[in-house]
Amino acid sequence: MLSWGIPALLLATMVNQLPIISAFVPTEPVYVYLGTQLPQGGWSSILACMLGAWIGAQASFWLGRLAGARVLARMDAAPGAMARARRLFMRRGAPFVVLAQLIWPIATLSQVLAGAWGMRPLTYLAVSALGAVLAVAQYVAIGYATARGLAVFGLEPGDSLLIWLSPYWVLIGLAAILLLGTALILRQTRHALSIRIAYSVVLALAMFVAVNLGTLTARVEAVERVAPVPLATACRALDETLVARTGETPLHEAQPVNLALIGFDNPARLLESLGWLRNRTYARGDLEPLEILVLTLRGLPPASSLLLKGIATDLAWQEERGAVPRTQLRLWPVAMPEGAPAVQLASVGRIDAVTLRLQGRVPVLAYDLFPYTDTARNREAEVITSAVPGVRWRLAGPATRAESDWQFESDGRIAVLTAPGAPDLATLCEGVAR
């Protein structure tokens, strides 16, 4: 269920059925989001939306019945369209009302017309119930089908469909479209066609965002995979390039594990002292859509699940506020024998673009990693070394470049930072099978 709860869903869907103001409370994206959640349940929320749509339809009906002429004059519908609608209503009253509720530009108008043109209240109670169920169900079906069925078009996971190199300009463009749509709605007497175009664009974009949010929040048992990385896995970084791959939340491409901290008992305190900011993650506990939006607007977007040999981490930081560009660091604690110094593996990368790509069967907005990851790795190694007296660092691992089919370019090595008095990673790995 959404964070604002059943009562808010009821209220929003009731208001969405009222003439004029319905345009300012579009609930269709909510229905689409609920459709993406169907495999995890959410039927109570969907039923609440259907009930709210039905109750709101009654309010519109009685507005039309009690003050039909004044309400219709305020809605300022085109005379030709009104004449065609009246002919359809007279011939096919009940089917007309049901089908009209499925079409958002005329849904509330049809409800007012049913009252103004004398449909019996009991008849309207029945036909509007069917219309409300179908109206909500069609958007729920869109969300469900989009989240489950895009593969029939032959699109493969990870296909890059579009890259937005300047996402801030995209946000400015969306805001401009929203303002234009609102302005045209307020001046609907002159720009009926423009209203429909602007409102349709905004509504379609909102539904796309709803599908993305639904994909990010519909995860399966990621909590069980949060655990320390075995020491043997950490030691393999001396022989091969370890790569953290995307989990259920497809916000990032795979990225190299390119940093190791040896002997740092409290890496969180170290990063905070350097000014780094902690990110919420999807790896430990669900994040709801409202939380995702709020955190992103605050410049601290949630960090997606990255898996190292199937193990997720809930430890993520970014260097400064902002969504793009930003430098982000992930930490995987390593399971160490009693008495051994603390070891953490890390992946440092700079996010510098937003990409529209497919993950499984769903088109999602994802972050693009700056391909030259060695630059971010060496920079942060130098920053930490300068900030903590006695820390030393060196490059370790294979002297061969990472595979070329990944989305990044790297020398494939790992920067090992060793605290004063701590042994080197190679020393810790002596005698460990890897």
UniProtKB/TrEMBL annotation:
**Chain segments annotated as transmembrane:** 41-64, 94-116, 122-141, 161-185, 197-216
Lineage of the source organism?
Bacteria, Pseudomonadati, Pseudomonadota, Alphaproteobacteria, Rhodobacterales
Q: Short name of one Pfam family for this protein? A: LssY_C
Going by the UniProt record, its keywords in alphabetical order are: Cell membrane, Membrane, Transmembrane, Transmembrane helix
Where is the VTT domain positioned along the sequence? 25-144
Q: How does this protein lie in the membrane?
A: Multi-pass membrane protein
Q: Origin, by domain of life? A: Bacteria
Cellular compartments annotated: Cell membrane
Residue span(s) of domain LssY-like C-terminal: 248-411
| Family, as annotated | Belongs to the DedA family.
Task: Quote the protein name from its UniProt record.
Answer: Membrane protein DedA with SNARE-associated domain
Principal location listed in the UniProt entry? membrane
